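User: For my dataset I need records formatted as: sequence, then structure tokens, nothing else. Please produce one.
Assistant:
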Amino acid sequence: MVGRPASLSRPPAPARWRGRTLAAERHVREHQAFPNAEFPQPFGFLFSNHTMSFPRKFRSLIEASPDSVEAPDYVWLVYAVCACTPDACGWGGWMIEAAFKQSSVRHPTGTGDRLLSAVDEQRCPRCGRETYRTGVALRVEPSSDQTPVEVEGRDYDVAPIEYVD
């Protein structure tokens, strides 16, 4: 899988992290790092009482807990770059190549482990173009200490969630 352009089948969806887009997360970090700087505030809900609405039928998906989802035993990351076309943006960073769950049953994968569902479509997060997966790959295994390093209210905000029919 390494060293080939990724698929262009779907446009990237906005990433959500704890009820907020990653772009909003970066905005808050910039504002905290430079409190006297003038930053545009395109994410007004961060500084107001905005509520996020979701369809009620997806409540069990949205309110997932660590015990309700199948966690991988290991994940392969690959270093990808946005450099496939002359108008590419030049981004480079880590992307998921595959997530696996070990089992006693052999599965039809290169490792024999079961492939888990994960966002592995390598599209540039900056411009949406296809990326090139370099030969730099890294196998990552979960730590036994899963204590969050970020603190709600200090490092990020969480918008209240409501469910609608």
